[in-house]
Write a structure and sequence with these properties.
single chain, mainly alpha, Growth Hormone, Chain: A, elongated
């Protein structure tokens, strides 16, 4: 009896660890895309204050929609494997940002007549449009992870508060790490193209992990009530 209870608690701890690590890496990737993305947009739109406003605003919109839709998807599908194709698309998209987005950003800038100054309104909106085209999709998919993991990891209604607090805390810690690592390390030692490819590869790893996560979830039985 003692052995069974101890094994159950180990399985439950492993489940929480896997879910927490999953969202930690998701939060990390989001902030790398936000910080490195602002530098990337500056190549076409200049180093104006509006780039940061646009990037922060677009990422927050992606997070809000991802949280809302992710929760609904989790209630419907209830399997981590559902995340695999979404993460695979987001990862491939991120890896290819240096390849296919330069013409898109150039088109946004060059649509304005060359003999006229760009209006103040479009100086504000052009970076937002560029940020949406490049960074909305991967950040939206990554935002789905937190509510989805809460749904999968919470086995009883009385655990929802504990699990949701753990998941959002780990996601936020991952985002904090992403801010400092990208701002203080990655941008200094890697080019922007390499950062996007590495982040895309990380997202692809999450896609692979989601394929096997259901097996871990199924093997981790509920912890006994105290």
């Amino acid at each position: 009896m003692f052995s069974t209870t101890a094994e159950t608690r180990v399985d439950w701890a492993m489940l929480k660890t896997v879910a927490a690590g999953f969202v930690f890496l998701g939060g990390f990737a989001i902030m790398v895309l936000e910080i490195a993305g602002a530098r990337y947009l500056a190549k076409d739109f200049g180093g104006s204050f509006y780039i940061w406003i646009s990037q922060i605003g677009v990422i927050l919109i992606a997070l809000a929609l991802g949280y809302a839709i992710g929760g609904a998807l989790a209630d419907r599908f209830k399997r981590a494997a559902f995340l695999a194709p979404l993460l695979a698309v987001a990862g491939l998209f991120t890896m290819l940002i240096p390849n296919f987005t330069p013409p898109l950003l150039q088109a946004i800038v060059m649509r304005h007549p060359l003999d006229r100054e760009i209006s103040a309104l479009w100086q504000k909106l052009d970076p937002a449009l560029g940020s949406t085209l490049v960074f909305f999709l991967p950040c939206f998919v990554l935002a789905i992870l937190s509510p989805y993991m809460i749904r999968l990891a919470a086995r009883r209604i009385e655990q929802v508060g504990t699990i949701s607090g753990l998941i959002y805390a780990c996601s936020t810690v991952g985002s904090i790490a992403g801010v400092f690592v990208s701002g203080y390390v990655l941008i200094d030692v890697m080019g922007l193209s390499a950062i996007f490819r590495a982040t895309g590869a990380l997202i692809m790893v999450l896609a692979v992990v989601s394929l096997v996560m259901d097996r871990w979830m199924d093997n981790a039985v509920e912890p006994p009530k105290n």
